[in-house]
Amino acid sequence: MNKQINTAFIKRKGILSKETDSFRLFDGVGDGIADLFIDVFAGHWLVSYLDEKPVDAIECELPRKSLWFKKLDKTEKESAQCEEGDPAIGRIKIKENNVKYLVDLEIGYSQGIFLDQRDNRLEVRARSSGIRVLNCFSYTCAFSLVAALGSAVSTTSIDLSNSYLQWGKRNFQLNGIDLDHDDHYFCRGDVFEWLRQFRKKDRMFGGIILDPPSFSRVGRRGVFSAEKDYSSLVSEAAHLIEQGGWILASCNHRGVSSEKFVNALTIGIDNARRNIKTIDRKPMASDFSGEEYLKSFWIEIE
Ligand SMILES: C[S@@+](CC[C@H](N)C(=O)[O-])C[C@H]1O[C@@H](n2cnc3c(N)ncnc32)[C@H](O)[C@@H]1O
Asked: How far is the C-alpha of 70 from the C-alpha of 165, rounded, in Å?
């Protein structure tokens, strides 16, 4: 196993730099062990596994500060356990393309950043200058943060969870963004409700990010399912896009193929009576060499 981990590290050495200290070191089937995943967060290793916890010592030539283990289980979402190093240092700062993010290895099932969206974050930053950016299902507001750093005129982050939005604000502050004076809005609640409100008030955006979970349970509307409801989601978003604006639509539901997803996107945009100028799939970041579960499409609207 350690030989495979070392080979995986050698392949990814180029990602580590002064600007980026976090990446996926080992990606399951892509690196030869189907149920083993290792993420590195600024020198702290998080080993995730599906069924059997690895029993052998995990080593490679990359040194580490601590070692954490997490069982991947969609129903029993337990926090990671520290097995080497100081468990009190679970809250850390990481760097990705020179942007700082707060990561928490200690509490909860998710750590505060999804490393598989690194390339999309870079692209959002490059496309945000001078426009208003809306980030739906924002979680800890990583996309909003890069939009702000990319000179967006304003950013609007929507999430059901107030604590994730607060985490997002701390991410902004960590990067020296003045939340008292700049135009950054943090909206708590259901994305569909907010999109309807924005439409009523004629609020328009130059860029919209849609990165929902596969399923979510929401108040009056019941359940959101990426498989069934993505068309109506993208349709609501398309109503709010300025001429020449863009939508980033991501879907990590394994049950939705790339073809099915593009179909849902084109139907949704058509239903909003908007035209697609270009639609391009962005491949997953190179350190995610295993299953291509994340489907990300960049759509330019006429
Ligand atoms: C997969 S995460 C999004 C990751 C995020 N886009 C990023 O790149 O960091 C899903 C987020 O959607 C939020 N969420 C789920 N259903 C929602 C809804 N109906 N309206 C608003 N937020 C929702 C959850 O609280 C969670 O923070």
From this structure: 24
